[in-house]
Write a structure and sequence with these properties.
Elements lengths: L2 E12 L2 E12 L3 E5 L6 H8 L7 E6 L2 E2 L4 H10 E4 L11 H11 L5 H14 L15 H13 L5 E5 L7 H16 L3 E5 L3 H7 L2 E6 L2 E6 L1 H6 L4 H10 L1
Helix pairs in contact: 3-4, 3-5, 4-5, 5-6
The structure holds adenosine-5'-diphosphate (ADP) and magnesium ion (MG).
């Protein structure tokens, strides 16, 4: 299998804190990986390092065989290739839903407006927001805004999508509508790294679970294996608290 993301003995510290401790992971194209672990274990830092929102101290990260660029055009290109959806939706509040989705493709990918708008409408339909395209973000619910954030990332035609607790700021009744979009994306072949504690998503869509604690990947297994037979005391303890 062709690797899309490679982390080669990656280390990062915040002062005394070893936040990424010798992470050595390869993610093949098309794989859906769930990252799970206690708060403060380094999950967000792991994601942010992959699109270089954070630098690393040692080791190397490669996307499609190319080491992460440090700056300039190449870095902008990387950010376009690696979509990221956060806990907070981060839509541009003074722009319409449609403009939120077309801005990147026009500015970064150099698409014509008409083409960008057609593509945006297709994506908004896909996430169930097609009929809200001319509204402003504040007029949408949290679940709808998060689906727009996903469509906005997809409009850049990324090679990889990173999700960092995309449903943890949502009211319970809106979680499913966002997870459904993510499950569909996963089944459509997108390579995804998803930080989430939503077991349903992990079971339905993930091929692989990474359990992180203290900056280390402590377990690397299938969802079935991880949830039914966690191997480390840390994972057992963690699962007993969330299940
Ligand atoms: P998680 O997403 O698993 O909760 P994070 O990756 O956000 O964990 O953080 C891991 C650890 O690094 C935490 O102890 C956090 O306090 C610390 N940390 C995160 N960002 C910074 C920063 N910019 N400066 C100092 N410490 C940080
Ligand atoms: Mg986090």
């Amino acid at each position: 299998m062709q690797p899309l993301v490679e982390l080669d003995h990656v280390n990062k510290h915040y002062g005394e804190l070893h936040v990424l401790n010798d992470i050595d992971i390869t993610i093949p194209k098309g794989q859906v990986v769930v990252v799970i672990g206690p708060s403060g274990s380094g999950k967000s830092t792991f994601c942010r390092a992959i699109n270089r929102l954070e630098t690393i101290d040692s080791g190397e990260i490669r996307i499609d065989g190319t080491p992460l660029p440090k700056e300039g055009k190449e870095l902008a290109q990387l950010r376009a290739d690696v979509g990221m959806v956060f806990q907070s939706f981060n839509l541009f509040s003074h722009k319409s839903i449609l403009e939120n989705v077309t801005l990147g493709p026009i500015k970064v990918r150099g698409k014509k407006r008409k083409e960008a708008e057609e593509q945006a409408m297709t994506l908004l339909d896909r996430v169930g927001i097609g009929n809200q395209a001319h509204k402003m973000p504040a007029q949408l619910s949290g679940g709808q805004q998060q689906r727009v954030a996903i469509a906005r990332s997809l409009a850049m035609e990324p090679k990889l999508m990173l999700f960092d607790e995309p449903t943890s700021a949502l009211d319970p009744e809106m979680i499913t509508e966002v997870l459904d979009v993510m499950v569909e994306l996963a089944h459509g072949g997108m390579t995804m790294v998803v930080v989430t504690h939503e077991m349903g998503f992990a079971r339905k869509a993930a091929e692989r679970v990474l359990f992180m604690a203290d900056g280390k990947v402590m377990e690397d297994s299938t969802p079935e294996e991880f949830f039914s037979n966690p191997k480390t005391p840390r994972a057992k303890d963690f699962l007993s608290k969330i299940l």
